[in-house]
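Suppose a colleague, Dr. K., hands you the sequence of a protein chain of 212 amino acids and asks what its three-dimensional shape might be. Before reaching for any lab equipment, you can write down a predicted structure in token form. Begin with the sequence itself:
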Amino acid sequence: MFKTSLYAEIVGMILLTGSVLRSQGQNFEGLIVYHNEFKSKTSKIRDSTFKVELGDKQEYYIKNNNYKSIYNGKYLKFQLYKGDLNKAFILAGHSDTIREEDYNKGNRVLNCVINEDADTVMNVPCNELILITVVGITHYYFNPKYQADSLLFKNHSYSNWNYILSKTNSLPMKIIYENEQFISTSTAIQIVPMHLKETFFDLPKSYPVVSK
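The predicted structure, expressed as tokens, is then:
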């Protein structure tokens, strides 16, 4: 059985991956594709279970302060974030309702360090931000070439995203999150600028919405 508490923590990091991208001074509008990998640190859950349940691919769409992620796993279908509400709407694979969540709470930060030229992703040299919170350690790899407008997400405290943007001002090209139970890695493999209609970020009417 895939434990809900463990799922929530892992999904928290996946949902965080990519929240706004700017290029050459303009807000990026389009699609970012991430490849997700998981490594279990407990004998109770296999690596393959993470892949089946959470998927190894994330399609992330962004327009202004709204974003939408679509996943190919069995447990999670999509996440839609609406910036004007500072809320996310999440559809799990086993559910017939959309869960509404406020994104105004983060985790207490213990330490933050930035290292230059730490990795290369998509042939782009990346700096590294190491964020230590009360729940785990996260490595964010970023390049200022892909700027992020922190003001658009100043209230997005979920997974400390507003704190991260205040330090990096950039889209994460890769995120590695680790705690005592697992390691998750999300890596950008494709960035495609495209025009998205406002209606693309509408909630599907076929699912009722319930508050968490």
